[in-house]
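Try this one yourself first.
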């Protein structure tokens, strides 16, 4: 009986030990599983945090690229070649933004790549800003020089105009001063015998005598003097001959060739009358070297 009880007691002790071992194993398993769950949770949190950090980095890069695009858009210049280069850089920035949006495996190397691109874009922009500023300064200098050139040109033109005007005035003065003038124009009438007469019915020839005044400014040399005798009816007494005066051909009555030597010179011109002598007021005009050099009037009465 005692042996049976001892056997039963031993079996009970063994069972108890087994149960204690199993419980211990279960507790250890629970502890391990708890640790593993905690570690997994921690890893998940770290993964989520890392994903959030990656997303934030991508967003920051995209924002910087967008701001860079806006900065490039603000660059203004009148240089077509430079404008073309700026447009190419803007297209490059848009390509980088699209490429960044499509990146799935974002990593430190990827981030470094885009940061290098940003650094390169900043360097290029500084170069463009310097070029534009230099061009603006050059344009300002050119504009200032252009204004000065225009002012100088205007001043020189004004001075030249004044010189031309003065020269023209001087030439006109000299031209006027160099004209040979006449004085003491006298009209006489001769009959068939060459004697002076006052009777209209006997007048056969008109005698016009006058003096050329000496003028040192006039050109010396041979000259031709034209005489025009204009009748009371307004027509010139002529035999059909003409000379040019101010681009027109006008009729004259007679002419005389002379040699002018800048001194006073007495000249006489005769006109033989072949037409009917009209009674009334006549006009005598003298022309030489394209100028009208003298004029007088006379009357023929009965």
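Now uncover the answer:
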């Amino acid at each position: 009986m005692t042996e049976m009880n001892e056997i039963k007691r031993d079996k009970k002790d063994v069972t108890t030990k087994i149960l204690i071992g199993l419980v211990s194993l279960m507790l250890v398993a629970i502890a391990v599983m708890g640790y593993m769950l905690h570690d997994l949770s921690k890893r998940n949190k770290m993964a989520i945090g890392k994903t959030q950090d990656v997303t934030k980095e991508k967003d920051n890069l995209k924002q910087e690229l967008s701001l860079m695009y806006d900065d490039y858009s603000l660059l203004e210049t009148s240089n077509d070649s430079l404008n073309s280069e700026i447009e190419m850089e803007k297209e490059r920035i848009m390509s980088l933004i699209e490429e960044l949006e499509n990146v799935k495996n974002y990593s430190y190397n990827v981030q470094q790549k885009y940061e290098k691109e940003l650094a390169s874009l900043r360097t290029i922009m500084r170069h463009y800003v310097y070029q534009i500023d230099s061009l603006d300064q050059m344009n300002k200098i050119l504009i200032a020089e252009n204004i000065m050139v225009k002012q100088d040109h205007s001043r020189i033109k004004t001075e030249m105009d004044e010189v031309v005007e003065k020269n023209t005035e001087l030439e006109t003065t000299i031209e006027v001063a160099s004209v040979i003038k006449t004085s003491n124009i006298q009209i006489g009438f001769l009959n068939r015998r060459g004697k002076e007469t006052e009777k209209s019915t006997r007048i056969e020839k008109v005698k016009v005598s006058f003096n050329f005044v000496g003028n040192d400014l006039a050109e010396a040399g041979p000259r031709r003097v034209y005489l025009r005798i204009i009748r009371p009816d307004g027509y010139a007494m002529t035999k059909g001959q003409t000379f040019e005066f101010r681009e027109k051909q006008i009729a004259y009555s007679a002419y005389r060739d002379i040699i002018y030597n800048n001194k006073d010179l007495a000249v006489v011109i005769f006109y033989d009358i072949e037409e009917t002598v009209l009674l009334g007021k006549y006009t005598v005009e003298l022309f030489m070297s394209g100028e009208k050099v003298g004029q007088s009037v006379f009357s023929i009465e009965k």
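Discussion: Confidence is low (pLDDT under 50) at residues 47-52. Strands lie at 182-190, 205-212, 221-230, 242-245, 248-251, 254-260, 265-272, 280-288, 291-300.
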